[in-house]
Each structure stands twice: as C-alpha cells, then as structure tokens.
C-alpha cells in the first residue's frame, strides 16, 4: 500500500525554497532544450517541408543545388514533353523552368545577406502548389515586377509590397507577397524568368527544371529516362530527397544542440539528486517511523520518486511556459531568424515551439526526475528501521 | 502472548562483537502493562525492538502473537508490525506535514479499509486519547503531551494486540508524563492490550503490572509494579 500523495506533496511544500530552486534549475534546462530544439527543428522543417513528393527537380549532373546548375533551352523543350509529366487543362505540361541568382540584399539593421531570387514562369504556381499569394498579386511578365516570400518581406530594405527592390541592374517593383506553408520558398524573391535572365546577361536562361509527375505515373521511370538521355547530362531527383540533402547542414547543429541539452540535463539531475539526498537525510527518523508502522520499502521508494517527479514536472511546466513566451518574444523581436544555408543563401525561419519540442523537453524533465530521485529514494528504502529511528 | 526464549543479539561493530542481549527468556501474558528498565546499554531497547519485530535475534526464539519472528523476512516483518504492533516513541515521531487525523490514519492505509471507515476509526482513536477536537492540527501546533497522545492514537488505531513504547515520557514534563502513563495503563486494563514500555522514568513503576530489570544484556530480576498485577 502506498503512502498518501499528500505526504510527498506536503514535504515539497514544507521545504519551499529548496523545492523552488530545484524546479528553477530544471525549468532552465527545459527552456534551453525547448528553444534550441525548436530552433533546429524549425530550420529542418523549413527545408524539409519544401519538397513535394510528386515533383522532380532536374539539374545538370553533379550540381548539388539549382544555384550551381545550368539547363540548356533545348533540354527544357524536350524534357517537358516526356511521358509521365502531368498536364494542365489546356494540355500544357506542368514543367517549370527556373533560373536562380543570389544577389546581396540589405537588411534593416545594415547587414548584407545573399538572397535567392528565382526567375519563374506562370507554370511555377502549378508545380509548386503550396505557394499562395497572400498580399497584392502575382507579377506580370516583362514589367519589372517581383513578388516576395513572407520571410523576405519583413527582413530586407525595399522588400515590402509597394516598395522598390534594387538588385542586379534593375529596379523591381514589389507587387505581392506569398506564403508556402513555411517552406524555404518564403525566403525567396520570385520574378519573371526571362527578365531575370536578361538582367543577369545569361546566355543560357535556366538553372534547372521542376516537373510534376502525372497521377499514377511511374516517377522512377521518368527520372531514369531523364538521367539516361544522352543529349544532355541531367539528373532528376524527387524534391523531398533534394531538400533533405539541403537540410543535412542542420544535422551537425542538431547534434551540438542535443549534446548541450544532455550536458545541462546531467547538471540538473545532480541538482535533483542533491535535493532528494538532503530530504532523505533530514527525514531519517520519519522514514524509520513509517517503516516501523509497517510501510514497505517499496512504499518509501515510491514516495520519494513521486517527490522527485513532481519537482521535475513542476520544472517542465514553468520551463515550457517560459520557453513558449520567450519563443514568441524572439520571433517578434527579430521577425524571423536568418540562417546561412549550405547554398550560401539565407533562409529566414520562424521560430516555433512545436509539440514535438515540448515532448522532448518533457521526456528530458522526467528522466531528470527519475534519474535524480532514484539513488536517494533507494537509500531511503534501504534504511533499516531501527537504524533510521536511532537519533544521531 | 509474548514468548522470548533464550534470546541473544550480537552486533558487529567493525571487528568487535557487541553482545547486546545474552540468553534472555521472558514471558508476557496478554493484557499486561510491562516495563523494561535498566541503565543505558543494558539491552532493554534491543529487547523491545525484537519483541516489536523491528529486529531479529542472533540466537533463540521470539514468538509474538503466535508468530516466530526470526523466520520472517524484511517485508513479512513489516506486515507483522502493521497487523500486530502499535508504536509509541520518545520523540513522538509524528509526520510533520500531516495533521493529527492524517497521522493517526497512516497505519490504516496498510489495511483494506475504505476512506470513510479509516477516517471514522482515526476520529475514534483520537477520542480515546482525548484529542477529538484537535484532529485538524499539525504536530507543530500541538504541545508535547498532545503529540504523544496523537502518537498513542496512531498506535492503537489498527487495534493491535501489542503496543510498544520506547521512553514514552522521556520528552515530557511531569504532569504530561503521568497522564501518558495512565493512558498506557488504561490501554492494558480497558482494551486488553499488551503494553511493553522501555523507560528510565521511576514514575512508571507505579503504573505497570511488572518490571523486568536488565543489565549488560542479561535479565536480572522481575518484580511486581505498583499497579499490583502480581509479577512472577
């Protein structure tokens, strides 16, 4: 039979200061784990969510991203009519030729960052289905107009709807802002592909091609046919695979963050252990009394573990609320956090504390509670009643 | 009720052997109020711990309420104590974070009784010791005498056959000491409990039925107490 819950709870209240300090230490770990974890997961989510599984990205063989690729006009005109590529209601293939350049943009605080400018045709909006204009309208071809992703709009000088953006040789009027469900397109500027090619004086107008596979079509067969065509040395990759590769740069960061979180967690575990050992020491006579009354070793063990877990849960609750508030504050303060991705362009990510990040922090807090409480609880349970009852 | 036969208890302290009890035999009948007396280190607390099932003998047999305690494991001893023994300590040993009722209720948590029944029995036990109106007070809000009464209520709430008391008056003033001794005597007289008390307190002699004197781990003599129960 277990001790009543008000026993461990009452004891926690009886030594408020020590309990509060231990809760604070665990809360700090929870805040750090949650915020760093959500930073990394927000970055990964931004990159990984960019792919559509029915889309193939076609680049020159060996190119690791569309910034380092070129695609001849003839290749575009041939590949777009391959079997297995979806068509719109007019019979036009869902194939989006794209050109990317990476000029410097000025940030509001005076910094310079590479931003990815993507030249596209109207087909881009049918291939990249998640892209939606949320303010203003789409650009008109050959009119010096641009649309900006939500992350770009808030970050750079001249990037709001109605402003004029200066990059390359031209001036681009911003006529709209788009979202793409949080994916990395939101860190890009989109303009008319021919205008961009002319501005950049590119003889070959395209970097790469995105194609959407028809429903029921064999994507592998389509990719193999593109790869095997002897006229051009091309490589087709499913978009999720392509963006997952781009996200690999986040993995190193992820391991650093996990390492730091574990270190902080070990520290907090020692804190919890210390608190509980002190509790066991000061309650020896009490433990002896409970054992004399007939409570089992298991009941004592459980009661001290409950004490430790309640501390851990308290730390999690305080830390989770603080982390959520801090996350919002940071997002509000910075309007998004800029990351230099592997492509040397800047991803603007929104820091979001996701349920997964909180679950990880909860798991961490519970492990701290269990690991920190186990040794003291075992010591309390092992006390022999007559020894515990003996006054020192 | 309590049958101690040729019992020894040896402690090992480093390389030394400490003979706390040597070949002690003792029989205590049901319903008796018995004092174990003697100087410090005489073995009286060791004997009390053996009778209460807190400790096991190195040799001999301790039989209490029909059970040979030397045969029981740690958790079986805990169950034995919960069922058969009530404890009263010198420093009361109440749980500070629980109120008087919560303290008295504690041993009942080891029974199958429901919440309402536990509460009713705890209140009854508090009434027996005259503290019904203090049930909601924490130990820190009670005087020493009141705390020891709560402890006695806790000792009897499960209706055990045996109550063991280790220096129950050791931390009390004269008036409270006498009241506690009278209460323990009544437990034997009116409720048929077998009460075994370790004490230095000479006032105790007037309340008990029999006194067993120990010295250096050996039972020296047994005399009748002032309560006139007539010892052997």
The total tally of domains of chain B equals: 1
Total count of domains of chain A: 2
Number of helices of chain A: 13
- Specify Rg of chain B, calculated over alpha carbons: 17 Å
Task: State which percent range the strand residues of chain A make up.
Answer: 15-25%
Poorly predicted segments of chain B: none
Shape of chain B: globular
Order of helices and strands of chain B: EEEHEEHEHHHEHEEE
The total count of strands of chain B amounts to 10
How do the strands of the widest beta sheet of chain B line up side by side?
6-7-8-3-9-10
Order of helices and strands of chain A: HHEHEEEEHEEHEEEHEHEHHHHEEHH
Under CATH, the topology of chain B can be stated as: Rossmann fold
Number of strands of chain A: 14
Topology overview:
The complex is a heterodimer of chains A (392) and B (232).
Chain A: H1 6-14, H2 16-48, E1 55-60, H3 73-79, E2 95-101, E3 104-106, E4 112-114, E5 116-120, H4 124-127, E6 132-136, E7 145-149, H5 150-153, E8 164-167, E9 170-179, E10 188-192, H6 193-199, E11 208-212, H7 219-228, E12 234-238, H8 239-246, H9 248-282, H10 284-293, H11 297-334, E13 337-340, E14 346-349, H12 355-382, H13 385-389
Chain B: E1 2-13, E2 16-28, E3 33-37, H1 44-52, E4 59-64, E5 67-68, H2 74-84, E6 85-88, H3 100-105, H4 115-128, H5 144-156, E7 162-166, H6 174-191, E8 194-198, E9 210-215, E10 218-224
Parallel strand pairs in B: 3-8, 3-9, 6-7, 7-8
Antiparallel strand pairs in B: 1-2, 1-4, 4-5, 9-10
Helix pairs in contact in B: 4-5, 5-6
């Amino acid at each position: 039979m277990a001790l009543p819950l008000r026993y461990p709870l009452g004891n926690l209240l009886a030594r408020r200061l020590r309990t509060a300090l231990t809760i604070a230490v665990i809360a700090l770990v929870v805040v750090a784990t949650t915020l760093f974890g959500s930073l990394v997961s927000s970055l990964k989510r931004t990159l990984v969510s960019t792919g559509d599984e029915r889309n193939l990205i076609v680049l020159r063989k060996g190119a690791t991203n569309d910034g380092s690729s070129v695609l001849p006009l003839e290749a575009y005109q041939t590949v777009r009519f391959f079997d297995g590529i979806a068509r719109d209601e007019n019979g036009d293939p869902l194939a989006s030729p794209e050109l990317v350049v990476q000029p410097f943009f000025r940030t509001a605080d005076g910094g310079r960052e590479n931003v990815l400018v993507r030249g596209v045709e109207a087909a881009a909006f049918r291939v990249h289905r998640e892209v939606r204009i949320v303010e203003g309208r789409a650009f008109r071809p050959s009119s010096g107009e641009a649309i900006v992703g939500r992350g770009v709009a808030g970050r750079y000088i001249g990037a709001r709807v109605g402003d004029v953006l200066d990059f390359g040789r031209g001036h681009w009027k911003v006529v709209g802002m788009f979202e793409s469900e949080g994916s990395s397109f939101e860190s890009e500027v989109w303009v008319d592909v021919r205008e961009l090619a002319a501005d950049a004086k590119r003889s070959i107008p395209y970097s790469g091609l995105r194609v959407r596979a028809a429903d029921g079509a064999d994507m592998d067969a389509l990719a193999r046919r593109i790869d095997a065509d002897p006229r051009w040395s091309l490589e087709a990759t499913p978009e999720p695979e392509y963006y997952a590769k781009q996200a690999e740069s986040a993995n190193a960061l992820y391991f650093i963050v996990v390492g730091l979180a574990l270190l902080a967690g070990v520290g907090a575990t020692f804190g919890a252990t210390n608190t509980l050992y002190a509790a066991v020491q000061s309650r020896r006579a009490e433990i002896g009394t409970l054992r004399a009354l007939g409570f089992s070793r298991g009941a004592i063990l459980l009661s001290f573990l409950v004490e430790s877990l309640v501390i851990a849960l308290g730390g999690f609750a305080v830390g989770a609320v603080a982390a959520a508030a801090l996350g919002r504050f940071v997002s509000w303060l910075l309007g998004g956090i800029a990351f230099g991705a592997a492509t040397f362009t800047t991803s603007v990510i929104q820091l979001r504390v996701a349920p997964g990040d909180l679950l990880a922090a909860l798991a961490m807090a519970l492990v701290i509670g269990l690991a920190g409480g186990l040794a003291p609880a075992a010591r309390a349970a092992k006390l022999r009643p007559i020894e515990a009852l003996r006054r020192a | 009720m309590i049958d101690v036969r040729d019992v020894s208890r040896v402690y090992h302290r480093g390389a030394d052997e400490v003979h706390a009890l040597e070949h002690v035999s003792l029989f205590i009948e049901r319903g008796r109020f018995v004092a174990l007396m003697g100087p410090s280190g005489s073995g009286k607390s060791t004997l009390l711990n053996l009778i209460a099932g807190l400790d096991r003998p190195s040799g001999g047999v301790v039989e209490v309420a029909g059970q040979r305690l030397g045969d029981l494991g740690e958790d079986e001893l805990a169950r034995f104590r919960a069922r058969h023994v009530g404890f009263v300590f010198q420093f009361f040993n109440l749980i500070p974070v629980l109120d008087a009722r919560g303290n008295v209720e504690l041993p009942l948590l080891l029974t199958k009784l429901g919440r309402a029944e536990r509460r009713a029995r705890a209140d009854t036990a508090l009434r027996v010791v005259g503290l019904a109106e203090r049930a909601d007070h924490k130990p820190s809000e009670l005087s020493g005498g009141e705390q020891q009464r709560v402890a006695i209520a806790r000792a009897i709430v499960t209706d055990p056959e045996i109550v063991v008391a280790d220096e129950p008056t050791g931390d009390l003033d004269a008036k409270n000491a006498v009241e506690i001794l009278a209460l323990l005597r009544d437990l034997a007289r009116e409720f048929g409990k077998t009460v075994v008390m370790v004490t230095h307190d000479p006032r105790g002699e007037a309340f008990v039925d029999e006194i067993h004197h120990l010295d250096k781990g050996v039972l020296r003599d047994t005399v009748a107490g002032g309560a006139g129960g007539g010892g052997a």
